[in-house]
Predict the structure.
Amino acid sequence: MDFTFTEQQKMMKKLFSEFAQKEVKPLAAEIDEQERFPKETVNKMAKCGMLGIPYSREYGGAGADYLCYIMAVEELSKKCGTTGVILSAHTSLGTWPIAQYGTPEQKERYLPDLCSGKKLAAFGLTEPNAGTDAAGQQTTAVKDGDDYILNGTKVFITNAGEADIYVVFAMTDKSQKNRGISAFIVEKGMPGFTVGLHEKKLGIRGSATSELIFNNVRLTKDQLLGAEGKGYSIALSTLDGGRIGIAAQALGIAQGAIDETVPYVKSRKQFGRSLSAFQNTQFQLADMQTKVDAARWLVYDAAVKKQAGVSYSVEAAKAKLFAAEVAMEVTTKAIQLLGGYGYTRDYPLERMFRDAKITEIYEGTSEVQRMVISRDMLK
Amino acid sequence: MKKIIVLVKQVPDSTEIRVDKQTGTLIRAGVPAIINPDDLAAVEAALQLKEKYGATVHVVTMGPPQATGMQRELYARGVDSCTLITDRKFAGADTVATSNTLAAALEKMEFDLIIGGRQAIDGDTAQVGPQTAERLNIPQVTYVNEIMELGNDTVTVKKSLEETEEIIEAKLPCLLTTLSGMNQPRYMNCNNIIDSFEKEIQIIPFQELGIDETKVGLKGSPTKVYKTYAKEVSGETEVFNLSAQETADMIAKTLKVKQLITK
């Protein structure tokens, strides 16, 4: 494995880092406090071509490699976990299944607007009674002539209400269980499709998280994504990629916490010495950075394997499991190093700590990642 | 369609430069090279003219071969072509030798408008733009903070002076120097970054300029740097432990005594 960046990757990283510093950091505290979706930032990201990074030129993407996209999520998340997940949910969860499983007509219809950022994407799998047990879908899509009638409710949907295009999963044949699930492309504004109340969350508070409610939504057969009954495998393969995005978000949050901590411990004096002169501080920082670098290695490895077209499901699970737990550990330690100041909203660390927690939960909990990893070991 | 040339220099990031106190020289190792901020404003101004009037934007740089990295970043911001004037013979050039070199290259190019930054953050002379205009025998307006209109034969600009502004119309072709505060330079674009590695960077070496060797580089530079040294910080320091109110009163009183403020 060699993660020496190409000149293109270096230039991309420079763009993402500059953008995060100038556009994302100044808004991070406010969108958290106000629980406000940063629409203006998303529009600026679109102008920079950041909403279609790994997708082909044919559909208006940048045609860059998957690692570039992962670095974008990482750099944004260093300053703001909310902004990181908006990009990840749009790129990995909403756009990817259309790029991967869409017909040429569906790709032509949806991808150019998604890559240019004219439209934002989201993914609807989770239901009140189908979280980790995603196979227990209760949303139904019943055939009516050539059309389907969609009924049901999705919960905890990232980018809900803000997105224009939703990849939604529903039972088309209950008797087939997993194999009776199908994927559909649902557009905002379709009759019968409404978005529920904004969820009030511990972290990533600027991210729009809501229910999707489908009440007799009529879908044409052109909106079926992949073959009927293929929805469950589409969902799982989409989540494999999404996990690398969330791992990158966790990685960014953890590195961002260290980046905030280092200047503080150098300037803060207690007992006549800067905190950085104490061996406890030095050892804590060394452990934090070592773990973050190890997490980065796992995340980039999964991204490079995905780009190479080799199996990456287990690597993605390891990357997400480890990066998420490192993000929790590092943000906890960072607050401890800042003491009382770290606990206040005058510093961004308490926000980073709150943002980190979700990375252990969404797109497969840490327990699910352990199941994926151990299943591969014990097969 | 109007052809705009932008003069861009790559400079060390002066916010990162430290001076070696022993030798008095600049510590350049590890200091990142950046696009000169006033020049970046010039690029942005040119790109805005391109969007408004349909012009083409061409970057011309004098510098070492590694400046091509900076030029790729300018492609990623949307410029149409990049040219690098580079040769060992140009090393050590002061503003006279630099403007000789730039003018020799520009004389061979077609253009309606040349825009350059007011000054580079490494030399801070603000001389290269005006000297180049003089050598090309074209009008110049310096300290431009707004390009109001690009007409068929003229350009109308706002020139910012310390206390006043002047609105000036100049005949094309002419040269403008711009201030970094005049606009918000755009970011690179991901699609353009990928494309920038497919784009050509035209290299112009010394022998293609048709200029005498004594006019360029160290040989063509009347300015000689005698010594570079770090400023000694002098003055005595007093430490006061007072309340905020008392501190403010004390500072105000001291400034009045020193006649640094009058009220």
Residues 159 and 208 of chain A are 5 Å apart (CA to CA). The radius of gyration of chain A is 21 Å.
